Amino acid sequence: MLKPAEEAPDFTLPRDGGEDVTLSGLRPAPVVLFFYPKDDTSGCTKEAIAFTGLAGEFEAAGAKVFGISKDTVAKHDKFRDKHELGIPLLSDAESDVCERYGVWKEKSMYGKKFMGIERTTVLIGGDGKVVQVWPKVKVPGHAEEVLEAVKAL
Predict the structure, then answer these.
(1) Which residues form the active site (predicted)?
(2) Residue 5 falls within a domain, yes or no?
(3) Contact 13, 31 (CB under 8 A)
(4) How far is C-alpha 55 from the chain's CA centre?
């Protein structure tokens, strides 16, 4: 897991709609990355809708917000359209970025162990360094908490 003041690993990933996003190309804007397990599941949908609802406020604060999961760009497009999401969704199909950010973890459900994305949000400052990490995110109120951290930069 990344720690504050560490350099955020750079990446280029495809996003919904088909363009690529490169983290270092977003500087000097602060960047919020919310890693989530799977498109169109209950918690992930609520989280994406919450960030979408605050998109204007994040933009006013100068921050860029992206959701990241292993889902394909095609799945992201369907998820975005179905829920009218206004946050770009990045596809980390090979889980390379998830691994470098420390969110690819062993999980357990119904007694079975498997690898998956642990819901985590990372705030990266305009200098490319990690400002704050929220591991094991609980969705209610989370987007608002992240917005407050962005405003405090």
Answers:
(1) 44
(2) no
(3) no
(4) 13
Q: Per-residue pLDDT tens for 38-65?
A: 999 999 999 999 999 999 999 999 999 9
How many CB atoms neighbour CB 65 within 10 A?
24
**Catalytic residue list contains 44:** yes
Angle at alpha carbon of residue 80, lines to 75 and 85, rounded to 5°: 155
Spot the catalytic one: 8, 23, 33, 44: 44
Considering the entire predicted model, what is its pTM? 0.95
* Residue 26 in tokens: 């977003």
CA distance 71 to 76: 7
Residue type at position 100:
R
Q: Is residue 105 part of a domain?
A: yes
Q: How many domains does the chain have?
A: 1
